[in-house]
Structures are given as C-alpha cells and as structure tokens.
Amino acid sequence: MKAIIHIGTAKTGSTTIQRFLRDNLRRLSRAGYYIPMYRPTKQYGFHAYALTQAKHMSEKRLSNYLGIHSQADLEAFQSKFKKKAQGDLARASKKSSHLVLSAEGLSSRNKKEIRRLRELLEPSCSEFVVVIYLRRQDLKRVSQFRNMIKNRGYTSGEVFTEEYVSSLDYYSVCKRWARVFGESAVHPRIFPDSALETYDLIDDFAEVSGIAETSVYPKLKRAGRSNEAWDWRAVEFYRLMNDHLPALVDGKMPSERKRLEEVLKNCFPECEQRRLPRAEAMRFYEIYRESNDKLRDEWFPHQASVFQEDFSKYPENPAPRELSVEEAIFITTRILQAS
Q1: Is 151 contained in some domain?
Q2: 90 and 215 in one domain?
Q3: Same structural domain for residues 39 and 112?
Q4: Which helix (H) or strand (E) holds 3?
Q5: Computed from CA positions of residues 44, 263, 252, 65, in that sequence, does the dihedral angle turn out positive or negative?
Q6: Do 7 and 131 fall into the same domain?
Q7: Are residues 331 and 237 in the same domain?
Q8: What global pTM score does this model have?
Q9: 123 lies in the same domain as 214
Q10: Is residue 13 left, alpha or beta, with left meaning phi > 0 and alpha meaning psi from -120 to 50?
C-alpha cells in the first residue's frame, strides 16, 4: 500500500480533514483507501504508538481514554496496539491500494519516534507520502491563543511573545520527517489563509493524497469548517475565569467548564476578532524568518516567500479594548439562563 500520513500541524484544518475522511469511509474504502479507526480515539493510537516517553502525551483526555498514565502503561499499550494494527494493515493491503492516517500531533515527534511509526507501517506499506500543512506563524499563534486559554488554563493576555517556539520552526519539522522518509516523500502545503493564492483545503488534500483522481471524489460529502473562531469577548471572559476554575481535574475537563464553553461560543454571533498591533505580529513573524527562508529554498524554490506577507488585517495602532462591565454582566446572565 501507499501510505498517506497527514501530520498536521495544529490549527491548520486537521479536524476538517479528519471529518471529511470519517464522513466518507465507505466510499473511500470502495475506491481502495483504507482509513483505520479505533475506538475511542480514532487514529490517535498511531500517534501514541510512536511515542518513546509517556510524558510526551500532550492531552490528558487522550491518555485517560487509552489508559496511559505511566511508562509501563505506554509500553503495554504499544505492544497490544502493534499486534492489532499490523494485523489489520496486512489484511487491508490485500484489497486496498492506499492507507490514510491523520493525526496533527505527529508533526511534533522526534526522529526516533518518527522511525517507530515507519517501522510499524513498513510490513504493509512500500511507499510513503507525508503531508504537512503550515500556517504563517503569527496567524497560527493567534489561532492557538484561544485553545491555550480553553484547554490549558492560560491566564496571560499576551498573544505574541519573544519566546522561540520550536513547533513553529517549520524547516526543522520538515527536515526531521525527511530524514526518516526521504526528502521526496515530504510534501509541505501552505494553509489557505497563509498561501500566496487562495484555494480549498479539502481539494488540496484530495489532490496530494490521490483521492481527487478517484471516480468517487465528486460524490464525497463535505462538512463545513470545524473549530470555528470565538468572539474575543468570550475568549477574554474565559481567560479571566481561568484564575478561578481549573482547566482539568484528574485529567478531565470539569462539567461546569463544558457548559461554560457552550454558552460562550454562542454569546456573540458576530464573532469580532481581537485587534492586535501590526508591529507585534510582524516582529513575531520575523523570529522565524531564517527557518522560513530555508524552507523556501528547499521546498518552494520558485516562490519569493513561503507565505503571503500581507499584514494589513492588523491595525497599526488599535485602541485598547478591555471587556466592559456591561459585557461581563451580559455573559454572566447568559450563563445563568443556561444553567
């Protein structure tokens, strides 16, 4: 089989791609595409199998689902998963031409962990395509900010920091995967809002995976975007709440936070975005200039830059805007009405 391994990165439409695959499992199967799904975490088991350390489990919720709380737990899971997955892959290879895996956390794996994944797949897969979507670093940071508040209990109001974030060094990420699978196997793609020309994400994934060439492609179901953005006032209320309400209790999101989340994301349908200073966004982007230039030279040699560099969406001097007392009272009222 030819393995299509979609590795993220985070905040680049991975949930939309995964939903597209799940919604079309039967038709894609008839077209020769094997998309393994294991309950309750779908394809996350492949990510967990690659890990060398249990402490690399990034989400407590998933570690609870898989029963992984220690190194011994991880090794026991991996032993069982290897037997199950390789048996399924061997059977699938007799009737399928392609394997498709999608797990955005894979993009952060180290070379040893990437090699573990390849060794798991190699008995049944003879060709590999690694698909990685990249988003301009400042745009990704803005998108991550809400998740850091919602899922990690982040309390700082600072979006752009001076800290160097290794996961935003896209050249190094691509090179890690290229050292295991080969340069020609790695296909970095630019997320639509960061690309020099606009395009449809699903059409692009279908093209690079070969799905677009199948007879079933025009008939496949497409869902809308997943993980829609929130209004900045709802995010700010959530951030302030983090000082008083823990993000996780025993590795699980408290029920009151789940209810709060449902109310907040519907409080302001117009979904006004936080107005951030242009200079801060550009300064943050420049931190990764060298990495982006190397990426361009190696994978995008015919482009002047990897990403579009229009920063006009950021105002030069946005007026300071804090959550007003009236807005806080409105949100609180909505929460009380929903309880």
Answers
A1: no
A2: yes
A3: yes
A4: strand 2-6
A5: negative
A6: yes
A7: yes
A8: 0.92
A9: yes
A10: left
Residue 226 pLDDT grade (very low, low, confident, very high; cuts 50, 70, 90): low
Question: How does pLDDT run across 131-163, given as a tens digit for each residue?
Answer: 999 999 999 999 888 888 877 788 888 899 888
Q: Tell me how far CA of residue 320 lies from CA of 158, 317, 324, 326, in angstroms.
A: 13, 9, 12, 17
Q: Are residues 203 and 275 in the same domain?
A: no
As a whole number of angstroms, the distance between CA 211 and CA 195 comes to 22
Q: What is the DSSP letter of 95?
A: T
Structurally, the chain folds into a number of domains equal to 2
Question: Which residues, listed in sequence order, are joined to residue 3 by a DSSP beta bridge?
Answer: 99, 128
pLDDT of residue 156: 87
Residue whose entry in the numeric block shows the structure tokens 């609870």 = 64
List of residues 6+ apart from 105 with CB closer than 8 A: 8, 10, 44, 47, 58
Tracing tokens 């550009």 back to the chain, one arrives at: 282
The reply to whether 79 falls in a domain is yes
In the chain, the percentage of residues whose pLDDT exceeds 90 is: 68
Q: Quick one: pLDDT at residue 28?
A: 98
Q: Which two tokens stand for residue 295?
A: 């990426």
Dihedral angle over CA of 131, 56, 35, 135, nearest 10 = -30
Helix (H, G, I), strand (E, B) or coil at 91: helix
Residue 58 in any domain: the answer is yes
Does 265 lie in the same domain as 118?
A: no
User: For residue 198, is it within any domain?
Assistant: yes
Residues 6+ apart with CB under 8 A from 319: 275
Q: What size, in residues, is the chain?
A: 339
Q: What is the pLDDT of residues 169-220, one digit of tens each?
A: 999 999 999 999 999 999 999 999 999 999 999 999 999 999 999 999 999 9
Note down the domain range covering 322. 232-338
Examine the domain organization and report whether 123 and 257 are in the same domain: no
Of 223, 217, 188, nearest to 6 by C-alpha is 188
> Is residue 247 very low, low, confident or very high in pLDDT (cuts 50, 70, 90)?
confident
Average pLDDT on 78-105 reads 97
Domain with residue 73: its CATH number is 3.40.50
